[in-house]
Design brief:
Length: 267
């Protein structure tokens, strides 16, 4: 069973963007058999992310086809250094924008997430993998390196040594190992992948999304600084969150009804 219904669908050529009546936005890549992350698809992902940023949903799910999320960049667009500069900029601006969305962004990985596909998943806040999922950064097999954030986000996710091993050998990691090393956050049955991702997103969408946005911002910023500076960020954000309507609603609901009973407004 799929949670929620489609409220409206935006008009794109290489992806679909559905806004569901449960507050979840579902972004599905649809660029041929391998969902190659061409410059054209990256431009559409950027446009979709900017659309979401202008009118924020409650949560976002990013997914692809039944057999894969994305098999990587469109290698036919590779060339020399000038082409690499354009491709790298396209990946970074797109995935940085996705990572910066002030909402819980979940990657639902049904099968292969290789190269740029793995980098796309890493730009999301949480990765749910089907039992058939395969992750990897195989760029080294072409004599190149990851160019869409893989060397940085992967190391921050699985640790420097593991990231070096994966990037330097191009070895692919299957779902259970991905779960063990922290590259995947959950592994579920293949047929239940989208139901689980949409259910979790719907749960987040009904929560205190303003506080979620502050939480995400502070965690991400803290990863780029010292513990002491991160704690200062948290202290300031703790004060900031008490300016939201939801903080007043949540505290009052707890005092009157106990935990987990609040109906948040998202403000």
């Amino acid at each position: 069973m799929i949670v929620g219904k489609t409220a409206r669908m935006a008009d794109y050529d290489l992806l679909t963007l559905e806004r569901r009546d449960d507050g979840v936005a579902l972004l599905t890549l649809a660029n041929g058999k391998v969902n190659a992350l061409s410059q054209e698809l990256l431009a559409e992902i950027r446009a979709a992310v900017h659309e979401l940023a202008r009118d924020l949903p409650g949560a976002v799910v990013v997914t692809g086809g039944d057999r894969l999320l994305a098999a990587g960049a469109d290698i036919s667009q590779f060339g020399g250094p000038s082409e690499a500069d354009v491709i790298g900029e396209g990946f970074h601006t797109t995935l940085d924008a996705l990572a910066a969305l002030p909402r819980f962004v979940i990657a639902a990985v049904s099968g292969y997430a290789l190269g740029g596909g793995c980098e796309l998943a890493l730009a999301c806040d949480y990765r749910i993998a089907s039992e058939k999922a395969v992750f990897g950064q195989p760029e080294i097999l072409l004599g190149i390196i990851p160019g869409g954030g893989g060397t940085q986000r992967l190391a921050r996710t699985v640790g420097a040594s593991r990231a070096k091993e994966m990037c330097m050998t191009g070895r692919q990691v299957r779902a259970e190992e991905a779960l063990r090393i922290g590259l995947a956050d959950e592994v579920v049955a293949h047929d239940g992948l989208h139901e689980r991702a949409l259910s979790l997103a719907a749960e987040a969408a009904t929560g205190a999304v303003a506080a979620q946005a502050i939480t995400k911002r502070v965690i991400d910023a803290g990863l780029s600084t010292s513990l002491a500076d991160g704690l200062l960020l948290e202290r300031a954000a703790f004060v900031e969150v008490f300016e939201t309507d939801d903080s007043q609603i949540g505290v009052a609901s707890f005092l009157e009804h106990g935990p987990g009973k609040a109906s948040f407004t998202g403000r």
